[in-house]
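Office hours follow-up: a student asked to see two folded examples consecutively, so here they are.
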Amino acid sequence: MNFLATSISRNIYLTTRRILLPTTRQSSSITEDDSPVEMENPFKKERRQCILCKHNITPDYKNYRLLSQFQSPYTGRIYGRHITGLCKKKQELVETEIKKAQNCAYMPYFYKDKMFLKDPKLFDPENPVRSHRF
């Protein structure tokens, strides 16, 4: 009698298991709980913007106080992009405007005006934004 009860319960278990398993597999594939979540790349760096583009400033040869920030106070040399951190377009514009201001005698060729030496720095020439190749 005991053997008969266990064999009947085993048959019921096997038949119910065959019925339940396919339905649970189908229902899990229909639900979208396991679908990938859309999100931004958490490792993406912030896009750096040059200081003139950030504040929407277009350099002009008459604004020699701004232009003097991109010139060395001792030699009059125009700082490069790796030091100033400007984008290519603004760097070229700054260079042409500095040359225009020097030709119009707004700015000196070889040194910075002494009155502009204490102006706040837009960048640190001793610590370049990007390292250079040498």
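And the second, which I mentioned at the end of office hours:
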Amino acid sequence: MNHNGQSCYVLMEYRTKNYIDVWYKIAAMKKVLLFKSASEDYEKTFSKCNYQTIFVEPLEFVYINLQKLSEKLQNGNYHGLILTSPRAIEAVSRCWAPSKFILWNTKRIYTVGESSNRKVKLLLGLEALGTSTGNAENLAKLITKENPESSKFLFPCGNFSSELLPSMLHSSGIVVDSLTVYETKENENLRTNLMAVNDSEEPCCMVFFSPSGCEYIHRQLQTFNNKLSNLPHFAIGNSTAHKIENLGVEIAGVAVKPKAESVIESIEQYFRTLQSCR
């Protein structure tokens, strides 16, 4: 074989090896069923850890009381704003005007996660505090620590919002003005989407992101024979985990923080433990 022929052979061998490596990587990727709207952040983070993501949104949201919310946002008597969900941030953004609500530039905005902080920055142009707290209980402790008694906060929330945060703040003498700005409903395509995943995919586990989502999914899975119910169930936080357990299902793991890296850590810890027990 001449020099050129040898070079071509080496190149073909290299390319073939690369293709095989890629094929094995794809074949080895584990699929995870995430009950949330499609997220580029989650998709990228999971892919880096050799996971494929399957997104199924169990919820639909209807925004309400936006006129009332707009009026409250113009009220200068609040010390700050508490936004514990993406929908609450979205509701505020729907009636937001930077020039109109410039007073919020000097007030405290609190949220519970880094993705929510990015959303606050993107939609409202504001910086949020509490992004590393991870849940409502820790956020309430931080707000209590950083603000004097009788401080007043506006708390836009959903119709299924937990009373934990307002109760903790009230017990510390902080006033919370809660306003329901969105209603949570079951996605009308949920059953169809669950059946499609059951028939065509092989996920290794499922991740739940809200108590209401858990309830809707659990109810729909009772309506047809499926493989999904037997998969390990993971939760984004404690309130979601408690809901899963209340439905009579064992919880496999709970993410320490509401972010993709923490979800993956919880999943991998579970499967490592499972492997070591064999």
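Two things to take away from it. Residues 154 and 177 are 5 Å apart (CA to CA). The two ends are 52 Å apart (CA to CA).
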